[in-house]
Amino acid sequence: MSTEMVCPTMSVLLSRAVGLGSRVRAHALPGGYRCYASTSRYKAVIFDMGGVLLPSPYHKAAEWERQNKIPPGTTAQVIRTSSDKSAWKRFMCGEIGAKEFAEAFSKECADVAARPVPGDSFLSALTTGPMAQPNPAMMEAVQCIRAEGLKTAILSNNFFLPDGSTYLPLDRSLFDVIVESCLEGVCKPDPRIYHLCTERLGVTPQEAVFLDDIGSNAKAAAQLGMSAIKVVDPESAVKELEEMLGFPLTGFVKGTRAVRKAMQLPMENLTRYIQKVLHLPATESVTVRQFSHGQSNPTYLLTCGDRRVVLRKKPPGSLLPSAHAVEREFRVLKALGNGGVAVPKVITLCEDASVLGTPFYLMEYCPGRVFLDPSLPDLSPEERGKVYEAMTHALCQIHSVDITAAGLEDYGKPGREIWRKLLNHLFIDPLWTTDRCLHTFCSNSLPFSSVPGDYVARQVHRWTKQYRASETHRIPAMERLIEWFPQHLPKNQRTTVVHGDFRLDNLVFHKDKPEVISVLDWELSTLGDPLCDLASSCMAHFLPPDFPILRGISQSDLTQMGIPTAEMIFNQYSRFMGLEPIDNWQLYMAFSFFRVAAILQGVYQRSLKGQASSASASTAGQLAEQMAVLGWDFATKEGFRIFNTQHRGPLNTPTPSRSVSSWASWQQRRSVSTHSIIAHTAPQGILVVSPEGLPPRVQELRHLLLRFMEERILPVDQQLREHQVSSVRWTTHTLMEELKEEAKAQGLWNLFIPVETDPDSKYGAGLTNVEYAHLCELMGHSVFAPEIFNCSAPDTGNMEVLIRYGTKQQQEEWLYPLLDGTIRSCFAMTEPKVASSDATNIEASITEEKDSYILNGHKWWTSGALDPRCKLCIFMGKTDPLAPRHKQQSMILVPMDTPGVTVVRPLTVYGVQDPPGGHAELLFENVRVPRNNVLLGPGRGFEIAQGRLGPGRIHHCMRLVGHAERALKLMKERVKSRVAFGKPLAEQGTVLAGIAQSRIEIEQARLLVLKAAHLMDTVGNKVAAPEISMIKAVCPTMALTVIDRAIQAFGAAGLSNDHPLALFYTWARALRVADGPDEVHQAAVAKMELRRQL
Ligand SMILES: Cc1cc2nc3c(=O)[nH]c(=O)nc-3n(C[C@H](O)[C@H](O)[C@H](O)COP(=O)(O)OP(=O)(O)OC[C@H]3O[C@@H](n4cnc5c(N)ncnc54)[C@H](O)[C@@H]3O)c2cc1C
């Protein structure tokens, strides 16, 4: 969406994100100026369409009657006296289409008029020409309402056009909710449709105003508690609405709103000043609106006759002399404007405090387009590419300014200024911007010095210090970055004017052409390394679209959208500037995220001290960690790049460039072609092959886990195995729950959730797959351990699915109890009647019925379903058997106690029932679940399965390595103490060979598992698919062989339940089939291998 010229900043987005839109009431002030206090109770305004937003159909009907010589009032009579069976009513309720309506309506009118009536032309008269032209006063009112943060809706008795669409010739984006009777099957004045509308708006009837031209409709709204306006004449209705809401509904300019009370200006002084400066007659009045952002330096749009100018001033209140230096802004704008940079033309700087109380400056208003959404949804791919190119051009223009010629050699700025601006971006509470707070907050920042060439070093130093001063807890990614930056500072930095906050939404584009006509918001400008500007302009590339402070495009397919990747933007920039390609661009990205993380941490610390009241402030802590993780992600990639550069021999081919994403990057990575990746492009880098190489935090965790295994689990392993074959085996052993609590208390809980899925470690320990591999292997030393650490299948896969794809409601209901370990879950995909190694064979059905889905299917091998704690089943079935092969399946959440879910029997693996979870055969007979239980959406089941199975498989493999390692350990102990034929078994040659071979095979398999984990961490699960298939084909057999040798060394005891070997063997064997049989994985590897370039 674009808007006309505004000066949007992060704070606009933030205020929207945290719902800070204020309700206001007008007070008349001298000079015709009004200011507004937030007192209104209204949160939404609901508009009828015909007769309110569009011309009245009744007037048109009268005209049509005249033209067709039909007795006046015929149509009105037919419509008004319509019963439930009448054509009009059925048409409005969507029961009949346009053709059927025309026929039936003609007949009804003919009965009243006692002559033939051409009903078909009636509909076209109502929907074409001026009838489809929105009322300008109403539409302006709608925009003013939205600018004040209220919601808007259409509630219309509407109908289908002959082409099957509904009649709605309005800009839908101006309404939060649209309720059309023909789609809902119910018409006004039926109360249900009003309730539907307020529910969707999320307001109570008392919080809504309703406008309708039909008295009975308005009356019905009033009876429900809404404030209703019966619209006779739209202009008067707008005035009435204005009185009710308490703010003006005229004079709308995009990006502006009514002036807030605290921000009012002394209008008499200002008017006199403007008249003088702009040489206007003394009779010319000045009207003012405020730009919606303006949190830092308030910015106003002044309209004086035809002339529009922008006023930017210091905020009210006592300020440090250097704070809010609008004088600096004026200076840089003037200098850059003279130097040919596209900036708003400044008119004058007024430092005379007698005019407004603080200095201010005036500049020309630049009408044009501002793109608030970096995905540029309204543009074509080609246009998008050009817009981004123009953005880079504009930046090059700034960075090419000759500092000396522009008189800006001494254009440095104190650190506190940068602080203030950035804080204001991220923080709404005006208290925050007082200089007292700022002073305390900034007391640790370094004084600014403009030594050319060390800009990044100084910045890193400053933000590190600042971060330390506001540290509330340890953010591992920040620690890593702080350690990393000093060793990787860029060499040969250039010094240019830098904008300091260069982003797409700070640019005004020509109204038709992809051309930047003005770069706004120079408050952070200074002299420094221009690449910092370039990096900050690319931050949106790595943030998700719903990111609270800056809308991002990380989840978009940039190539398809025509938007250049960050790397391409850097290349484009170097081309335009005539520079060598910038190879260390990821360092600058790391710095950008590091800086924002440090700022957010500051905001968070203030919120903890209670000095920050904004709702956003307390979430700043989470955001700080997320930013730090993103920063570290880039630092790691920069590390790989340096590593590759240093280690690339003459024969090595360079790693092909690839667009790098980090946030929620699994989605993007999914789109990377597997074929191209396995063609020798897997990135190199540091793969931690032994626990000693793990970061200290992970080593600590591993040490804790190892101790827990040795001291708490392995000693009771035998007891737990015995419970499994006892008469109470279908109950949970009390020890299990006790050990779970202990593990949780020690932080050995949910370790499986990869940092990629959970970047801010909200749910898990924030481990990479490689890090987890080293820990998960230890869990494999006991078949009971994974559950004790809440890391067991199928819960792990199910939790990851819910984290990735669950709605908030689904997460609250199911994910949190699972994460807490208070419930368990199962996954029902496999069916007895079809070969389920090919999931497209699934026959279970999921059919839609009103607000529900009805499930029918016969499943088996549903692991965990028999556990008394199992409350949830993720069921896979077909929603649309006619859709393309991989779009037929859906996954849906089924509470286990839903009627129609029956356990047929527990299955056995080699006679083992694996209680208490077991592996169940289940029947699903007409199982009804709510529609919103579907995961991700209908037809997305296969997609989820792919995401679910990758991590699940590698976890199995990690545990299998653990099984094998423990088997070998037991074998070694056994053969040292067991004597046969006069000497310990360990001295028998065949036994020695078996031990050696086992060690070799374990090491081989482990290395491959770690490689797969490393690829999952660095290039994503999809790209790592070949390696995941390889390990899934290797590990069960490897484990089987090693365990088999151990069993053999134990003799008959090895086969018994007295040792863990028999169970290890059973599960290793099952895993040659479960989660895809060996052959399926071999087939996948072979297929990809054959595609591979020689
Ligand atoms: C202990 C255990 C727990 C399980 N838990 C679950 C669970 O919780 N949820 C769930 O939904 N399922 C579960 N399963 C089921 C498991 O995922 C399936 O058994 C597996 O996917 C194979 O499907 P299938 O049994 O229908 O074998 P089929 O598809 O009938 O395959 C039979 C055999 O055909 C061969 N074959 C198949 N494809 C190929 C090929 N392309 N090339 C060559 N040969 C091929 C293989 O040898 C394979 O073993 C579990 C299974 C076990 C043993």
Structural class: alpha+beta
Bound molecule types: flavin-adenine dinucleotide
**Helicity level, as a percent range?**
40-55%
| Number of helices, counting only DSSP H or I runs of 4 residues or more | 38
Q: Give the CA-CA distance, first to last residue.
A: 47 Å
Beta-strand segment tally: 28
Shape from CA axes?
globular
Oligomeric composition of the shown chains:
single chain
Largest beta-sheet characterization = 6 strands, antiparallel
- Low-confidence sequence ranges: 1-39, 414-420, 425-451, 647-684
Task: Please provide a brief summary of the model.
Helices cover 44% and strands 13% of the residues. The site of flavin-adenine dinucleotide has 22 residues, from strand 20, strand 22 and helix 38.
Question: Can you put this structure into words, describing what you see?
Answer:
- With 1094 residues, the chain is an alpha+beta fold.
- Helix content is 44%, strand content 13%.
- It is built from 38 helices and 28 strands.
- Strand 17 (507-509) and strand 18 form a beta hairpin.
- Residues 1-39, 414-420, 425-451 and 647-684 have low confidence and may be disordered.
- Flavin-adenine dinucleotide binds at residues 794, 827-830, 835-837, 861-863, 909, 919, 1070, 1073-1077, 1079-1080, 1083.
- Residues 794, 827-830, 835-837, 861-863, 909, 919, 1070, 1073-1077, 1079-1080, 1083 line the site of flavin-adenine dinucleotide.
Keywords:
globular; binds flavin-adenine dinucleotide; six-stranded antiparallel β-sheet; 1094 residues; 13% strand; five-stranded parallel β-sheet; 38 helices; single chain; alpha+beta
